[in-house]
Specification:
The complex is a heterodimer of chains A (about 475) and B (about 280).
Chain A: H1 6-9, H2 22-25, H3 38-45, H4 66-74, H5 78-86, H6 92-98, H7 120-134, E1 149-153, H8 157-168, E2 172-176, H9 185-188, H10 197-209, E3 213-215, H11 226-232, E4 235-238, E5 244-245, E6 258-260, H12 261-268, E7 288-292, H13 296-307, E8 312-316, H14 328-336, E9 340-342, E10 345-352, E11 358-371, E12 377-381, E13 387-389, E14 393-396, E15 400-401, H15 405-409, E16 435-437, H16 440-443, H17 448-467, H18 482-486
Parallel strand pairs in A: 1-2, 1-4, 2-3, 4-16, 6-14, 7-8, 7-14, 8-9
Antiparallel strand pairs in A: 5-15, 10-11, 11-12, 11-13
Chain B: E1 3-11, E2 14-20, H1 22-27, E3 33-37, E4 45-53, E5 58-64, H2 68-75, E6 84-89, E7 100-106, H3 110-122, E8 126-133, H4 142-148, E9 151-156, E10 163-164, H5 167-176, E11 183-187, H6 190-203, E12 207-210, E13 226-229, E14 232-235, H7 236-239, E15 242-244, H8 250-257, H9 259-262
Parallel strand pairs in B: 7-8, 7-11, 8-9, 9-10, 11-12
Antiparallel strand pairs in B: 1-2, 2-5, 3-4, 3-6, 4-5, 12-15, 13-14
The chains are: A alpha/beta (about 475), B alpha/beta (about 280).
The structure holds flavin-adenine dinucleotide (FAD), iron/sulfur cluster and FE2/S2 (inorganic) cluster.
Iron/sulfur cluster binds near residues 67 and 118 of chain A.
Chain lengths: ~475, ~280
């Protein structure tokens, strides 16, 4: 591929995506960025240099042909662009919205060396949305059935991706989900204003249309064990995520008005508590909310609190802004919307009134010391700096642990001391024969796309394993990482 | 699956449903609960499994209509399907041979107590059952308990049936009679469980209670069900619902149960506590 006018493109500005004004959007749960118009998308796509050795590819955990789909957009073939992405990514409308492209593919884009990198995420979103709204409903062809049956446990991005790949290989797939709805964090955690649920449903429906069996309301380990699944299926993939909320373990955490981010977001998103007129699930109408944490989950909780009608939302983070794990764009959105950031602030106690409701949160100022194991500077308390913020609710968003039910009920499935399942990084093979695993349950809380990458890698290994002649040895074998296969 | 095969009103506003669910019927053990959802806009709420029948592939649910969700559930007829039934959740009761055991049920709490008492009997224990209710017409499952227990005593608050008084009065009678008891299970409204625990603590009788705090997922994912037991935070849906009653912080439980109660916006949230607050009918 050649790159015409590459001089002009280097240093050219990125096509901005319009967003709804902060004052308007904090009053509802509709999406914040509105997406590119076809003209904007073509203009942005035309900035791509179509590099001979595209650097961006190495940044994509599932190996999307980035220059390929971008070129299709530039030339106006939008559906073709979407189909190119769909070859390796079953959830492009999701990834286009929530992937941290700025630290994955875009950071590698050569345009970024002398200006702004290509807006790969925005273009991915455009292509996927265009196909959903205007494109044909054609589904990728399903090959001759292999007669093999695979059980997928958990319907988050890891499980859905694994299922999609396996269907594409001709296997029969059944997805088991504990909740009444599929999608994992995409439906219960990430809010509507960042990822409309209809989009997730659409992507799940496409899988179902290609023949995936979906069984909701089924907690594996309780209703059926992994061993029982192994009796009925040729292989089992475990993608149960890291959904067990952590608390601060400070006094007052059991007061009325203290929520884990998971509960706060699940009530709002999965159970639609924000739709007070229709939904039966309640959520407190708080006026002053403290959110504790610095990741995407904390940003989502804070912005949700505003939309639920809070007058003041504080975000308390014990390090400084530079250490915040949340995506920059989300921090920026939260700032625009008026979230009050308190950096270097650590809660020490939640105060209650005489009826047991939250009445305030006591915090201590921190300073940064030497870097810890994570490489981030360790926050240290500054004695005597206690102060109290007047709040009537607190949302704890300091992280999630692996879901313990499957590991606890599955003998021979080795776990780490953090409770994550031990699995080979390249193949997803666990210590238990015919059981693969991937996503947050293996890595601890991470990202949508890394979970998808793990689901894809496992599916390819499951396919290879099932095709191999008997007896098939189980030791996890070294294998190319999924990104390499595509590059 | 989830089809209602039989529906009966067994006391005013107390309904028994027999629900088809082959896998659940196989797996359900005493102490387990399910999470239900009745309509698309409905909430998820827990009910303890009151009985299960493996050969017939059914589970039994007994509940009191106390709010919108239980009212919706009670509106379903035989032949209808419950939208979502998830389980069996929670840890099963530790059934062992203890000797003579006391099973105390207050109000609708007799329903989750019944499978436990039955299993304890089958494991070779002598079972003394005490069931309490506000009034005679609210006494439930008496004959079921009579069929499995060595002794059944009934108390009603208004004295219309059995001994006049509370479950705790009957337990005090048993202590006064010098009955030796190895263990106690107490299930009912929070004040009842608290009162029983105060009595049995003084008597040195180990007591297990079954807590039913507000829940969303029932799988350890939201932390909404957290309770304080022995000074530690526990998630009732995965660490319980049964706990050592002498260690439970009932004050904190009662306050958290009232979270959506006191805020006028959502009084129908009451349905969540169907099993723990039978007095707050209507
Ligand atoms: C609020 C929030 C915001 C986030 N924002 C971003 C973001 O902007 N960008 C990004 O890349 N990542 C984000 N993440 C992280 C990302 O969502 C996760 O890394 C990703 O969803 C992990 O995928 P998974 O498939 O491993 O697990 P999950 O998405 O957690 O899915 C696991 C599924 O398994 C089900 N399950 C659990 N136990 C069982 C069982 N025993 N039987 C059957 N089913 C079971 C669960 O109900 C769930 O549906 C965010 C996370 C949260 C919580
Ligand atoms: S590195 Fe940037 S310019 Fe080069 S192909 Fe990838 S997106 Fe296009
Ligand atoms: S109900 Fe959500 S953690 Fe127990």
């Amino acid at each position: 591929m050649t790159a015409p006018n590459s001089e002009k493109k280097i240093g050219s500005p990125r096509e901005p995506m319009s967003e709804r004004p902060a004052a308007e959007r904090v009053r509802d749960f509709a999406e914040v960025p509105v997406g590119y118009t076809p003209d904007q998308a073509r203009a942005e796509a035309s900035r791509c240099l179509l590099c001979k050795k595209p650097q961006c590819l190495a940044g994509c955990p599932v190996g999307i042909d980035i220059p390929g789909f971008v070129n299709s957009i530039a030339e106006g073939r939008f559906e073709e662009a979407a189909d190119r992405i769909l070859l390796v990514n079953a959830l492009p409308a999701v990834c286009g919205r929530v992937c941290p492209q700025e630290t994955q593919c875009e950071i590698k884009c050569v345009l970024g060396k002398k200006g702004e990198p290509l807006a790969i995420g925005n273009l991915e979103r455009f292509a996927a949305d265009w196909k959903r709204e205007h494109g044909g409903r054609t589904l990728p062809p399903v090959p001759q059935p292999t007669g093999r049956r695979i059980a997928i446990v958990g319907s988050g991005p890891a499980g859905l991706t694994c299922a999609g790949e396996l269907i594409g290989q001709g296997h029969a797939v059944t997805i088991f989900e504990a909740l009444h709805k599929t999608g994992g964090v995409l439906v219960y955690g990430i809010p509507e204003f960042r990822l409309p649920k209809a989009i997730v449903q659409d992507e799940v429906d496409r899988l179902a249309a290609r023949g995936a069996g979906v069984v909701t309301d089924t907690v594996i380990g309780k209703l059926e064990t992994v061993d029982e699944l192994l009796g009925q299926y040729d292989a089992v993939f475990i993608g149960v995520g890291a959904g067990a909320p952590m608390f601060l373990n400070i006094p007052g955490e059991n007061l009325v008005g203290v929520y884990s981010a998971n509960e706060y977001l699940t009530r709002t998103n999965l159970m639609r508590a924000y739709d007070r007129e229709h939904a039966d699930t309640p959520i407190l109408q708080s006026s002053r909310v403290a959110v504790v944490g610095g990741g995407n989950v904390a940003m989502d909780s804070a912005r949700t609190a505003l939309r639920l009608g809070a007058d003041v939302v504080y975000l308390l983070y014990r390090r400084s802004r530079a250490e915040m794990p949340a995506r920059n764009a989300e921090i920026h959105h939260a700032e625009q919307e008026g979230i009050r950031f308190n950096f270097l602030t650590n809660p020490t106690r939640i105060l209650g009134n005489d009826t047991g409701w939250v009445a305030g949160i006591e915090c201590l100022r921190m300073k940064l010391g030497e870097p810890d194991e994570s490489g981030r500077r360790r926050p240290l308390p500054i004695e005597g700096t206690e102060f109290v913020l007047d709040v009537d609710a607190a949302v704890i968003a300091i992280g999630n642990r692996p879901n313990p039910i499957v590991p606890q009920t599955t003998p021979d499935l080795q776990t780490t001391r953090w409770g994550t399942i031990v699995a080979d990084e390249a193949t997803g093979r666990t210590t238990k024969e015919r059981v693969w695993s991937g996503g947050d349950i293996v890595t601890g809380a991470a990202t949508v796309i890394s979970a998808m990458g793990a689901g894809q890698a496992a599916a390819r290994d499951i396919d290879a394993y099932l095709a191999a002649p008997e007896p098939r040895p189980w030791r996890p074998e070294p294998r190319e990482s999924p990104g390499d296969g595509q590059a | 699956m989830n089809e209602i095969l039989k529906k009966e009103v067994i006391a005013p506003d107390v309904v028994r449903l027999v629900v088809a669910h082959r896998k659940l019927a196989c797996k359900a053990q005493p102490g387990h609960f399910v999470i239900l959802r009745v309509s698309e806009d409905g909430e998820r709420f827990p009910l303890t499994i009151a009985d299960s029948n493996t050969p017939q592939g059914t589970i039994t649910l007994i509940f009191q209509v106390v709010g919108k969700s239980t009212a919706l559930l009670a509106e379903l007829a035989e032949g209808d399907t419950i939208l979502d039934v998830v389980g069996p959740l929670g840890r099963a009761t530790e059934i062992q041979r203890y000797g003579r055991v006391l099973c105390a049920g207050g109000g609708i709490g007799a329903a989750p107590l019944y499978p436990i008492a039955k299993a304890l009997k089958e494991a070779g224990n002598q079972v003394v059952a005490v069931i309490g209710a506000r009034s005679k017409n609210l006494v439930i499952l008496e004959s079921a308990f009579r069929a499995i227990a060595d002794e059944v005593r009934v108390a009603t608050d208004d004295g219309t049936y059995g001994r006049r008084g509370f479950v705790t009065d009957v337990i005090a009678d048993l202590f006064a009679e010098g009955r030796t008891l190895a263990r106690c299970w107490a299930i009912g409204p929070v004040p009842m469980m608290r009162a029983v625990c105060d009595l049995t603590r003084a008597a040195g009788l180990p007591t297990t209670v079954s807590l039913n705090p507000i829940m969303v997922d029932g799988t350890g994912m939201c932390g909404g069900c957290r309770v304080i037991v022995g000074g530690e935070v526990k998630f009732a849906c995965v660490d319980g619902p049964e706990f050592d009653g002498h260690q439970v912080d009932f004050d904190s439980l009662a306050r958290r149960l009232a979270t959506y109660h006191d805020s006028e916006q959502r009084d129908h949230e009451a349905c969540r506590i169907a099993l723990t607050r039978p007095e707050t009918k209507d």
